[in-house]
Amino acid sequence: MVYWGIRGLCAGSPGAGCAGDTMGVQLREIASWAWNRKFIATVLVMVTLSIGILIGTVISGHVNATHAPVSSGATPLELPNPVSMSNSFAAIVSRDEPAVVNISTTQVIDRKQQPQGPRGRGQDPFQDFFNRFFDSPDQSPEAERSLGSGMIVDKKGFILTNNHVIEQATKIQVQLNGDPTLYTAKLVGADEETDLAVIKIDLNRALPILRLGNSDGVQVGDWVLAIGSPFGLQATVTAGIVSAKDRGNVGRQFQHFLQTDAAINPGNSGGPLINLRGELIGLNVAMYREGQGIGFAIPIRQVTEALSEIFIPEVLHALSFGARIKSGPYPLLVTTVEPNRPADKAGLKVGDQILQVDGKTPKGFIECSELLNVSHRPTTLLVARKGSEPRKLTVSLTPLAMVIKEKLGIDLKELTPELVRALGVKSKVGLLIADVEKGGPAEPAQLQSGFLITSINAQTTTDLMSAVEILAARKKDERVRLTVLVPQRAGKLVGYRQGSVDVKLR
Predict the structure, then answer these.
(1) Could you say which of 191, 195, 352, 463 is catalytic?
(2) Are 440 and 411 in contact (CB under 8 A)?
(3) Low pLDDT (below 50) residues in the chain
(4) Which CATH number fits the domain that encloses residue 363?
(5) Residue pLDDT, tens place only, 368-423
(6) Given 164, 191, 215, 369, which residue is catalytic?
(7) What range defines the domain where residue 390 resides?
(8) By CB distance 3.0 to 4.6 Å, which of 6, 27, 245, 485 could disulfide with 496?
(9) In the annotation, is 195 catalytic?
């Protein structure tokens, strides 16, 4: 008979033992062993997890502890709010954009060519010089037009821009922001070396101006805005950062630029680069054509140094003063006094501070130069000198042309675009003799009206001021050598032959 038991299957009577009992005992032992192992494994896992959590907590606490000791003066980094940043940009543009102008120029260029003959067969040996420095009037003139930007730096209409924007322009027109009228501007002064120029428009109202900032305080990574008229699109604003400072080997070797990734395109030249305080820190001048996001601006420090050479009576009003005033606000510091010039004769010294001009207090160096030309009578300056009480000095400004005539006995004129075209020469090649005084120092040298003086004592004379500066340093009866171009006409062709003469100063 077969019995079913809970431990297994056993053949035989119910009371008899069998091998199934032994197997049942073994199974119970195995089950007990397995349960014990599972328990131990579970305990080990729990202990491992506990140790891991404990270690993590300790490490986390240690890391926090290393960041905890922050200096009391430190400020936690805060990301700017995009909305507030946008609002600050809008506020700057709203305040500064009215002072940014669009400049359009017209330049009449004579496309002239000389008749070319076979080499060595009657060719004028002067031809090489002629071709390098002059044009020959054979073809009709053509008009070229260009666009640029500028900024108003004085409420009376003085506008700062790049020299290359207005260079050799026969007509300069300015369009103010929000005003469709084209105002004709005149060139006040230019500096080719720094590529800066000042032009002026005459309006019967005060104009908005840009405040000058400090380019030396600019840091790489600072936000900046560029405003201008790229491709003639007036009042275009772009934003970026200062990518580099003192960038050299770009353009003229001696110059150093601010580099920015704010978009600067053709037409932006002469426009402002502005910081987040709305201050002018640079003059946009160029872009890197081989790449994107690479633009350059002249730092405002270099701009103001050049302006101090433009906003002087010699440039603004063709009056001889002979002193330089540091660009900036009141009080005005005298940085240079040239010997034997009106300022020197009046007793002005380097280091003096100009407090008043004819009883009026100038707010800046531009207004000071303007006040010096209010009247043609002697001007009274109130100056402060270190270690003494303020004193009054009387200075008599003399027209530049008169200074030259007193020394040489000739009337000289600067070359205007119209004269350049009429004479068939390149611009700024020299000064035109308009008249020679009878019995004067220049008459024995047989100088005549129509001649061009290109240098005095081997120093170039492209304007009246350069000639005055050379002559003022020379004494009576001293001889100077003038380099002269004498016109030679053959029908419609005009050539110039170079020579030199010595003139005794009076």
Answers:
(1) 195
(2) no
(3) 1-20, 62-72, 74, 77, 112-139, 253
(4) 2.30.42.10
(5) 888 887 656 788 999 999 888 899 999 998 899 999 999 999 999 998 877 887 88
(6) 164
(7) 312-396
(8) 485
(9) yes
